[in-house]
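User: quick one
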Amino acid sequence: MASSTEENYLKSLFNLANDQGEVSISDLAQNLHVSMPTANSMVKNLQKQGWVGYEKYKPVILTQEGKKAAALVIRKHRLTEMFLVKKMGFGWEEVHEVAEQIEHIHAPKFFERMDEMLGFPTIDPHGSPIPDAQGRIQEFSYLPLSSCKVGQEVQLTALTNSSTEFLEFLNGRALRLGLNLKIHSREAYDQSMVVSYDDHPSQTLSEKVCERLLVRAIS
Amino acid sequence: MASSTEENYLKSLFNLANDQGEVSISDLAQNLHVSMPTANSMVKNLQKQGWVGYEKYKPVILTQEGKKAAALVIRKHRLTEMFLVKKMGFGWEEVHEVAEQIEHIHAPKFFERMDEMLGFPTIDPHGSPIPDAQGRIQEFSYLPLSSCKVGQEVQLTALTNSSTEFLEFLNGRALRLGLNLKIHSREAYDQSMVVSYDDHPSQTLSEKVCERLLVRAIS
DNA sequence: TTAGATACTTAGATTAATCTAACAAATTTG
DNA sequence: CAAATTTGTTAGATTAATCTAAGTATCTAA
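Assistant: Done. Structure below.
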C-alpha cells in the first residue's frame, strides 16, 4: 500500500502528465515543493514498486498500475470535496486543504458512503471529473471562455485553476458553475471580454480569467 | 503542533491514566504496540515539548496542556464516530478504525461542522463522553450492570469496552444504548445474570459481559 | 536482605523522507 | 560547435519513529 507521501507523488505525476504531457524530475520537484534529489530518489522507489517507468535523464512515466492508483487517490480527493460542499456546507474555495488530508484515509466504506450519499457524482465542485471506482476518468471537451466568439451564449462548466484566490475572485462576482454567460464583446488590445449573466450588469473579465473558465456552447 | 504519532501517545496516556491511575512506560508501550525503548524516547520528547512530566523510573504524567491536547484528539475521534453512525450509516462496530485515522486531520472547521450537524452531542455511539472544544470532559457516574441488584430496572447507557467483537456480540442480542433492562436473577456460581428487554425473551449474560455494560437506575 | 525477576534506560542500528554540496549530463545559445 | 546554463545524479547528512541487545535500577519474595 502506498504511503501518503507516495500517494502525493502519484497524484502529482498524474496531474502534471495530464496538463503538460511529459513530466521531468524538476517539474515533479517543483510541484511537490521538494528538492530535485528528493524527487529523484522517490521516483526510483516508485519504479521499484512498479508505479512508474523511469530511465536516467528521461521523463517519468506512470505505468498502468500507477495511473490507476493515482486516479483512485484523485477520486478520494474529489469525492471528499463534493461531500464537503454538498453535505457539510463548505464553500468551493475552502475544500482543497481538507481534501488533501482526507484523500489519504484508508477506508473504502467511508468513500463508498460519500459516493452513495452524493448520488454518484461525476464532477467535483470545480467541475473536474471524479474517476470511477476502477480508476477510469470521463474526459470532457470543454473550451476556455477565451476561445469563444462574441455573440455566443455558453454555460460555465469547469475551471482550469482552483486556487483559493481565483475561487474568491469568482465568488466576488457571483460566478459559479452552471451559469449561462452571454459574450458581448472582446477587447482586441488585451483580449478581455465583456459578458453578462443572471440579472447582473455586464462584467469585464481579463484574458487571464477567461482562460481559466471552461465552458460549453449552449445548444 | 503534535504529529499523528505524538497525538497517539497523548491519547493513550490520557486513556490509561483514566482507567488505571498511574501510567508506566511499559503500560504505554503495550498500549501502543511499540517497544519500551520507543515509548521511553517518545516520552522524553513529549516532556521536552511540555506535554508530560517525567522522571527516570517514575510514572508518566500528562501536564495540563498535555491533558487538554489529548482531550481534543479524543474529541475529534468521538465526534467522528458519532458522525459516521448518525450521518453516514455506519454501525457502531465499524467506526473505530476510520475514526483512528480521521482524528489526526487538522481542520477545525471540519469538526465544527460535524458538531453542528450532530446537534452538539455529548456522548459518542458507545456512550463515552465527547470532550468539549476546550478539552473539558463531562464525567458520568454509571454503574456496571454486574453491580446491580436483582429486581432493579436499569437503562443501558455506555460500555467499558468497545471492541468489534464485543459490539458484534451485543448486536447479535439486539442490545443497544438506551435500552431498559429488567434484572430477573443472578446465578451465584458464575455471577451471570438473566435480564429481559423490549419484547425479547429473557437473556442470560455472563459476568464478563455484565461488567462491560454500564447502566443507570431508572428513577 | 539479598537473589531473582521485572521494569527501565542506554547505545546503536534501521527506514522513510527529506536536505545541501558537488559533480555530470543535456540543452540552449552566442 | 563550444561555452554557458539548466537539469539531473550521487554522496552524505539529518530527523522522526522505530527496533534489538545489553546493561542498570527497582521491586518482590524466599
